[in-house]
Amino acid sequence: MKVACVGGGPAALYLSILLKRQDPSHDITVHERNPAGSTYGWGVTYWGGLLDKLRAGDPESARVISEHSVRWSDGVAYVGDRTTVNHGDEGHGIGRHRLLDILATRARSLGVRVEFESEITDAAQLPDADLIVAGDGVRSVLRERHADHYGAEVALGRNKYIWLGTTKVFDSFTFAFVESAHGWIWCYGYRFSDEQSTCVFECSPETWTGLGLHEASEADGLALLERLFAGPLDGHRLIGRAQSDGSAQWLNFRTLTNRTWHRGNVVLLGDAAHTTHYSIGAGTTLALEDAMALAGALRGNPELAPALASYERERRSALLSVQSAARYSAQWYENLPRYIGLDPAQMFALLGQRHSPLLPHIPPQLYYRIDRAAEQLEPLRRMKRWLGPRVARTLHGRAQASRD
Fold it and tell me: Considering the chain, what is the average pLDDT of its residues?
C-alpha cells in the first residue's frame, strides 16, 4: 500500500512506524510543511499506561522515549501564600521537539521517507496514494477542503491561555493560583527536561484585559507574569516561543469535533479529528492512540473503506469519556471563583475531581464531604460510579439537542 501522511506530528510519524513494522513493503511518505527542527510548543505530558502501549507497538521507539523522559509523582498547588502537596500517580514529560526527533529517526530507520518543507494542501497532489492521512492539525487544510462532508464543529473556550517555557525546573506537577487586582490568574507547570519546564497560563477574559495583557508586547506580558508568579517560578524567567517563528500568543482553546473522520481514501488523525482541553494533559496520548487504532484497523481489514469505518468507530467510543472529562475540566477553571475560597486541601481535592459531571451541580463543600465518605463506604462509591456517567450522558444529550 502507498501511504501519504500529511503533517509530521507525533500521530503521523508513529502511524508510519507501526505500518512499516506490520508490512515493510508499504511505501510511506510523511509530508511536513515546516523546516526540520521547527516545532511549536514546549513539553508534552503522558502517563505510564501510554508507555505500555508504545512498547507493544514498537519497543525500540518506546525505549528511547522513556530514556529521554523525566518523571514526577507529586502535585503541588500554590494558592496565594498557601501550599498543598498531593501524592499521586507517576507522570512523564518530554520535549515536543525531542519526541518528534525520536519518532522521525525511528521512522527513517524503517524506510519511511520524512520530507520537510513539503506542503500538501489538496489530496489531488497525491494521486498515486492508496491512503492519505490528514494529520495536519486542528486547522487541517485537507479537512477544510471538504468541510461540509466532515462537518467540523469548533467550540471556543471562554478563558484565555498562553503556552510558555521557563528555566525553572519543577520537581512536581505544579498548579499556581495568584489573585491580582483584576481577578485570579493561574498556571500549570511541569518539567520536560533537566533544564526547562512548560508553563501554561490561564485567566478569565476580564482578568486578561484588566491586567493589560490584551495590548502588551510579548516582552511586557512575560515580565508581568514573571512578577505575578515570582514565588512559584523562584525568580526564573519565562520564554515565549521555542523557535524563532513569531511571538507567543494568548488564545481561546478550540474544542474540535467532526461528524465523520474519513472521505474516500482520506482519513483524519489526531488534532485534525478531535481536540481535548489541555488541562487534562491528554492531547499527545490521544493522537498516538489514534495511530495505534488506525494501524490495527488496517491490519485487520483488507479493504480500505471497512478499515477506516472500524477505526472511526473504535476511536469515537474510546474518546467519549475523555472528551467529557475535558469539558468538565475546562468548566472547572472557568468557574474558579466557586472553588478558590475553599480550604487549600479541599480545593486541591476538588481540583483532582474536576472531571466529574456531578461536581458542578453539588455545593463544593458537600461534594468534598461525599467524596471523602465514598472513599470509606463502598455503597457510596458504587452510587458515584453509577450516577456520574448517567448525568454526563443526560447533559451531553441536552447540549446536542440545543445545537440541533
Answer: 91
Report how far residue 376's alpha carbon sits from residue 231's, in angstroms, rounded to the nearest whole number: 37
Q: What are phi and psi of 61, to 5 degrees?
A: -65, -35
Instruction: Tell me how long the chain is.
Output: 404
Residue type, 132: I
**Contact (CB, 8 A) for 141 and 150:** no
Q: How far apart are CA 102 and CA 104, in angstroms?
A: 6
**pTM recorded for the entire structure:** 0.91
Q: Which comes out higher in pLDDT, residue 129 or 321?
A: 129
How far is the CA of 150 from the CAs of 5, 135, 142, 266, in angstroms?
18, 14, 10, 11
Q: Which residues contact 192 (CB under 8 A, 6 or more apart)?
A: 42, 43, 44, 70, 93, 94, 95, 198
Distance CA 78, CA 189 (A): 11
Q: What is the mean pLDDT of residues 35-45?
A: 83
Q: What's the CA angle centered on 98, arms 93 and 102, to 5 degrees?
A: 110
Q: What confidence score (pLDDT) does residue 244 get?
A: 46
Segment 323-338 shows an average pLDDT of 95
- Which class for 283: exposed (0-12), middle (13-18), buried (19 or more C-beta within 10 A)? buried
What pLDDT does 301 receive?
A: 86
The pLDDT of residue 382 is 56
Concatenated DSSP letters for 135-180?
A: -S-TT-HHHHTTHHHHT-EEEE-SSEEEEEEES---SSEEEEEEEE
The neighbour count for residue 13, using CB atoms within 10 Å, is: 29
